Amino acid sequence: MKLLNRLFLILISILVVGCVTGRPNVQTDHQAGFSFSGLKTFKVLESKQETKADLLVSPFTLSHIHASLESELAKRYQAVLGEEKPDFTVTYHVIVEEKIDPNSYNELYGFGIYGRGFYRHPYPFSPFLYGPARSVRVYNQGSLIIDIADAKTDKPIWRGVSEKRLGRQMSPSQQREILSKAVAEVLSQFPPVN
Length: 194
Known about the structure:
Blueprint: H1 2-20, E1 26-30, E2 41-44, H2 59-74, E3 78-79, E4 88-101, E5 105-106, E6 110-111, H3 126-130, E7 137-150, E8 156-166, H4 172-187
Helix pairs in contact: 2-4
């Protein structure tokens, strides 16, 4: 019995560690054949938020992301000052979209198979007794897009995208914390390993 308990604890430990150390959801793309080893200096350009949807993103959040980008890149590269020409430039864009999650959820009993969402009651009047078995959740999806361009040609050489679910009741400081982590996650994939 003690052996079974120990095996169970080891299995649970492995599962927890696996969940904690999982790779972040970051997607990247880059120009094939470009030599990233020659990049030494950078400059982060101001964000170009140009659509009506961009009004959802606070200017304070944008300045926070700008500072996070400079801080993360300064760990590996040299920031240029003034009018100096960098090796690469960094632009960023934040998109906040309202999304719909049509998954089953029952407010009385909970999610999925543990609630009534997937269960069909055999009695015809059960929907009137218990309410609808399906509801829709609305949430905000935040996308951080980071583009890196060769400063000599102004052509893009790398793009990283991170998408995070943002709670509708989150304060701006909570959103900034999530976006700061997203900046670190995306830039951990730069430069690409060929």
